[in-house]
Specification:
heterotrimer, A alpha/beta (about 290), B alpha/beta (about 290), C alpha/beta (about 110), A: about 290 residues, alpha/beta, Rossmann fold, Alpha-Beta Plaits, 2 domains, B: about 290 residues, nine-stranded mixed beta sheet, two-stranded antiparallel ribbon, 11 helices
Chain lengths: ~290, ~290, ~110
């Protein structure tokens, strides 16, 4: 069963929740946690495990074969992203701008732009007890998160069995990387803080998830600060609130050190238990 | 006129709250640009009036004219993004999957496919409660956040600043390290990095600073929640020293920041003591450095 | 030498545009002929991606040999310009075109 942990606003606790929830569930059964925030993956700072596997991830880009080229300029014309430029007698390709549509390659009359794989990121798998942790990271300068997110999910699908719970720590926001992270999961947990920024961005995230026709629920982090707008909104919209993690300076301190929190903070453990039970029930219902 | 861009790498460090305070302190001397377009929040504190609203177009969407379509399937063959499917015996483009590459339109034998400009959001020019102009935007769901909307917001802010002889443009930058950040940084005279002394905070600070270095711009740093981890805070200070980044200030972990936000106020409106002083001193320092 | 400036306008006393990829205009000054060519780059505002390379290629077609600008081109644009053999000088972002030219002649600008 695949569960994405997402939020509109950054800094609301996606990684805190994903890592602690994964660690908690791993006390009972095997679990897979993947960090899909490929621009700035952070979960690995908290889940330290033994390296099990590493692979380079590629996307296809065109490569110029000078001796075949007739400088007709069709490649530049058909590229909507300015990833192929003709500079006099030279063709230049910009891999980071390439979206992999293959138009230049396939429309070149002399096959002078074959598509070849180019490394754009790395996927690493770690094991820590019953947690399998997968982290994907874009190499700096590489802009496009979507292909790496998709390939990471394929890897998880291929390498782990159907009944293991798979948590996906998603990127923040509502633009295409988040869509890619969330579109094939079974359930989404939106984590937010009960402040005006948190509330505003949570509504955007909720809209996004609804557009993708995904079932979802909310977890409130730093409960105690701010106001009740998030709770009122969820009640009006019939969105289940799975847990309310209390605002606690100790949690911030433990987080700052890169430590798992619930083992030191019992109130957090109680909230994780509620989330775990909800997930287990979901799994039972799906069978 | 100086352009000051505030970025953070990691989310949740206090970037927007700090930028809003500068907007308040700057008052009518500044123009504000909210370039954090994927989840823009400054308006929640500055109470803009959305005086002018414009649609924003970015990228294209392929649209198949069903009257002309001969159902040859050529478009579906060439699409690498699985964006074309057959529904009720018609070839339909899925707008969330279409990348706007234009390939299908080029190969359609009967020219049944057009590329339409995609309305992915709106941008606004507003007057704020603190007597300055805020240029901001709202990006639609699932939109491709390239640097374009960010560039648009900044450009409009710049135009207004120049026309009205303003001293500063204050930019709430985008989080992360991708193109929206690059677009936020281009043209900056000074970058303010807002960070927190945590493992994640330092990690992301270093990653985003790699990007800042490429632009050759002077940078300063605000360490927020500085007292939650003194070891990490020292590590941050070491890093700042090594890279010759100005250490602007340390802000303590204080619930007042969120209380202020909850009341729709910036910290300098809410607090009358040390916190306010810290922000005022920071703003003065920034003005001094960029003179 | 043909010298290109990234500008906000088309006169000697126009302000420089500190950006490259999305600069409003290019002014190309031919030192031998003492003449200006102007290019309106503002359509680039309609481009979501690849503004840098496209603009750099445009500059190549305008046959500039030296580029004077503000902050400097971003990564992709810089690659194109390097390949085109263009010399790039930065630091003129806050000047007028005339001031930027004088600064260049007096070796006051930094080479990119």
């Amino acid at each position: 069963m695949k569960i994405a942990i997402a939020s509109g606003k950054g800094g609301t606790g996606k990684t805190t929740l994903s890592t602690n929830l994964a660690a908690y569930i791993s006390e009972t059964e095997k679990i897979v946690l993947s960090d899909l925030d490929v621009e700035e993956p952070n979960s690995g700072l908290f889940i330290k495990g033994d390296s099990v596997h590493k692979e380079d991830k590629f996307k296809m880009i065109p490569v110029w074969e000078e001796d075949k080229c007739t400088l007709c300029g069709i490649c530049q014309k058909v590229c909507n992203f300015h990833a192929v430029i003709q500079l006099g007698s030279q063709i230049m390709v910009f891999p980071e701008l390439c979206h992999g549509c293959y138009a230049c390659s396939e429309l070149c009359p002399v096959e002078a732009l074959p598509m070849v794989p180019k490394k754009m990121g790395e996927l690493k798998e770690f094991k820590n007890g019953d947690i399998s942790f997968i982290e994907s990271r874009l190499i700096i300068g590489e802009e496009q998160a979507v292909p790496l997110i998709a390939q990471t999910q394929e890897y998880v699908e291929k390498n782990f069995s159907e009944d293991i719970i798979k948590l996906f720590d998603s990127p923040p926001g509502t633009s295409c990387p988040v869509i890619e992270a969330v579109k094939d999961v079974d359930f989404v947990i939106l984590i937010t803080e009960p402040t005006p920024f948190g509330f505003h961005d949570m509504k955007l995230a909720a809209e996004t998830v609804k557009e993708l026709k995904k079932d979802f629920a909310v977890v409130i982090n730093r409960y105690g600060i701010g106001n009740n707008d998030v709770i009122d909104y969820c009640e009006r919209e019939n969105i289940p609130i799975l847990a309310k993690i209390p605002n606690n300076r100790k949690i911030a301190e433990l987080y700052s050190k890169g430590e798992i929190i619930y083992t030191h903070v019992p109130e957090m453990k109680d909230e994780l238990e509620k989330i775990k039970n909800y997930i287990f029930n979901l799994r039972k219902d799906r069978k | 006129m100086k352009e000051i861009v505030v970025i953070s790498g990691k989310g949740g460090t206090g970037k927007t709250s700090f930028t809003a305070s500068l907007a308040y302190l700057g008052g009518s001397d500044v123009v504000v640009a909210d370039c954090d377009v994927d989840a823009a929040d400054m308006h929640l504190l500055l109470k803009p009036d959305f005086a002018k609203a414009e649609e924003f177009f970015s990228g294209e969407l392929a649209v198949i004219n069903q009257d002309k379509c001969t159902k040859c399937g050529r478009c579906k063959e060439v699409c690498r993004f699985n964006a074309i499917s057959i529904i009720n015996n018609q070839y339909i483009v899925d707008s969330l999957s279409c990348e706007g590459c234009g390939y299908c339109a080029r190969v359609c034998p009967v020219n049944a496919i057009t590329n339409e400009d995609l309305n992915v959001g709106n941008w606004y020019i507003s007057n704020t409660k603190v007597d300055n102009t805020l240029v901001h935007a709202k990006l639609g769901i699932g939109a491709d956040n390239s640097g374009k909307l960010v560039a648009k917001v900044k450009n409009e802010a710049k135009k207004i600043a120049v026309e009205n002889n303003k001293d500063y443009i204050i930019v709430d930058g985008s989080p992360g390290i991708g193109c929206p950040v690059v677009s936020s940084l281009s043209g900056a005279n000074f970058v303010v990095l807002v960070t927190e002394p945590s493992v994640s905070g330092l990690h992301d600070l270093k990653r985003v600073y790699e990007l800042v270095k490429k632009f050759n711009v002077k940078a300063g740093c605000i360490v927020n929640k500085a007292d939650i981890n003194s070891d990490k805070a020292n590590e941050v200070r070491e890093f700042l020293k090594e890279e010759k980044i100005v250490h602007i200030a340390d802000f303590p972990y204080d619930v007042s920041f969120t209380e202020a936000m909850t009341e729709g106020k910036t910290i300098v409106e809410f607090d009358n003591g040390d916190l306010k002083k810290l922000v005022v001193d920071s703003w003065n320092k920034i003005k001094e450095i960029t003179k | 030498m043909r010298i290109a400036f990234t500008t906000k306008g088309t006169e000697w006393d126009s302000n420089m545009d500190p950006r490259f990829g999305r600069t409003d205009f290019f002014l190309i000054y031919d030192e031998e002929k003492k003449k200006f060519t102007e290019f309106d780059n503002r359509a680039i505002g309609g481009e979501a991606h690849g503004a840098g390379p496209k603009t750099a290629q445009q500059l190549f077609e305008l046959k500039a040999e030296v580029l004077i600008t503000g902050n400097g081109p971003g990564g992709n644009a810089a690659t194109v310009l390097e390949k085109a053999g263009m010399k790039i000088y930065v630091g003129a972002g806050e000047m007028t075109v005339k001031q930027a030219y004088d600064a260049y002649k007096n070796n006051e600008l930094k080479e990119f």
